[in-house]
Amino acid sequence: MHGPAMSGWLLMALCAVTGAYCALRTRTGSEEERRTARAEALMGFGMAAMAIPAAAVAPPTWGWAVYAVLFGVAALRALWFSRRSGHHLHHLVGSSAMVYMAVVMARAGGSGHGAHGAHVMGSHSMAAAGGVPLLTGLLLVYYAVYVLRSGARLIPVAATASGGGGPAPAGWGARPELALACRLTMGIAMFAMLLTL
Predict the structure, then answer these.
(1) CA 80 – CA 58 distance, rounded (Å)
(2) Domain segments of the chain: what residues?
(3) Is the Cβ–Cβ distance between 140 and 194 less than 8 Å?
(4) What pLDDT, in 10s, does the model give residues 62-109?
(5) Are 177 and 160 in contact (CB under 8 A)?
């Protein structure tokens, strides 16, 4: 997950800003919207932490186990709430993907960061990185479709929100196009992180 330092820092910043906006959204909306925003904030901050370049901060080996447990619990929570909302199925896939990446990095050992950075530059094979090619491929397809679908949904919302169709949303947290943009951003970031496995 850790490519060249500049792309790692950019990915980390993008995910952190997305997580921060999702955290702001937890203060508005219905209970279901706040629950969704909390799950998305966790995902944004978790992805930001995983994207920090290894040259700057190398996490301890046990850190990957913490990620796996944290996102394992988030996956179980998403599974529980998916009874009410289909969007929680996406959170289930996202949390499971984070568990998968953490397990791959833990299996790679303390040098996992360096191995993934070199893989991005083309000197390591997927087998050296430790990912399961079929599972990685399925997740890449899922996120590619998710990104395209989210992008397509963003255009009509942005057009109707800026048109004179009705009253403007009250605050930053109530803007549906920003929530969709955050989901799109996290989908793109997840796709980029999975590419390095």
Answers:
(1) 34
(2) 5-195
(3) yes
(4) 889 999 999 999 999 999 988 877 778 999 999 999 999 999 988 876
(5) no
What is the distance between the alpha carbons of residues 178 and 173, in angstroms, rounded to a whole number?
A: 8
pLDDT in tens, 163-180: 555 555 556 556 788 888
Q: How far is the C-alpha of 64 from the C-alpha of 49, rounded, in Å?
A: 11
| Token pair belonging to 183 | 């989901």
Give 166's contacts (C-beta < 8 A, 6+ positions apart).
none
- Within 8 A by CB and 6+ apart from 116, the residues are 1, 2, 3, 105, 108, 124, 129, 196, 197
Report the 10 Å Cβ neighbour count for 51: 24
What tokens were used for 188? 């793109």
Annotate 153-175 with DSSP letters as a single string: HHHHHHHHHHTTSSPPPSSGGG-
- The secondary structure of residue 28, as a DSSP letter, is S
Q: Which of 51, 61, 43 is nearest to 2 (CA)?
A: 51
Q: What is the pLDDT of residue 157?
A: 53
